[in-house]
Amino acid sequence: MNNIEPIEQLLRWRLAQAERETPPAPRASRLLALARPWWETSPELFRTLWARLGVIQVAYGHAMVEPLASRGSGYPVPVLIVREGDSELEASVRVLYLGTKNNRMSLRFHLDAPPEDSAAGFEVTFVSEASAQPMFSTHATRSVDNEYWLDAELIEALAGDWRNLKVTDRMPFRLLLRRQATVE
């Protein structure tokens, strides 16, 4: 009994069926639009969010009432959480770990926000404190409670500038957090 021929016919039939069901490839202009960061495709939205994020003041003091262990370490970093319905929530994060190596940054932070505003993940946009310009965007994943971690590739200039940053230093960025769509 020769099973090779029926299997070959079945595979050819399945290939032809897959070719008929495949949608046409997107146009190059659509692919380029999809590759652009959100702040370039929606500059008005970015300006609106930066206007709110840029004025957030976060209190920091060495003689605060809470013990250091409960607050985390270092300066708080201002954050604007973009929620459904075009509403935002002002919050802050405490950097728990920051490491850069080979133009890659690993960051772990604690989000100081109510539990109902935490998510399984956020799209994190780093905005320069000095120039108010977006630097890059990446995804952060929740690990435990309100702690998140991310790993991102940095351009060489940023990697060099951030190489010596410690978690106790004032960070040169503010963060825009946008909820990621959950995949079910």
How is the secondary structure organized here?
Layout: H1 4-21, H2 28-35, H3 38-41, H4 43-53, H5 68-71, E1 76-83, E2 87-101, E3 104-112, E4 121-128, E5 134-142, E6 147-153, H6 156-162, E7 173-179
Parallel strand pairs: 1-7
Antiparallel strand pairs: 1-2, 2-3, 3-6, 4-5, 4-7, 5-6
Brief synopsis:
The protein is α+β, with helices and mostly antiparallel strands. The protein has six helices and seven strands; from the N terminus they run H-H-H-H-H-E-E-E-E-E-E-H-E. The protein has two domains: 4-34; 43-179, no CATH class.
Can you walk through the features of this model?
The protein contains six helices and seven strands; from the N terminus they run αααααββββββαβ. With 184 residues, the protein is of the alpha+beta class. The chain folds into two domains: 4-34; 43-179, no CATH class. Strand 4 (121-128) and strand 5 (134-142) form a beta hairpin. The chain is elongated and about 75 Å long. The relative contact order is 0.16. Mean pLDDT is 85; it is low at 62-71.
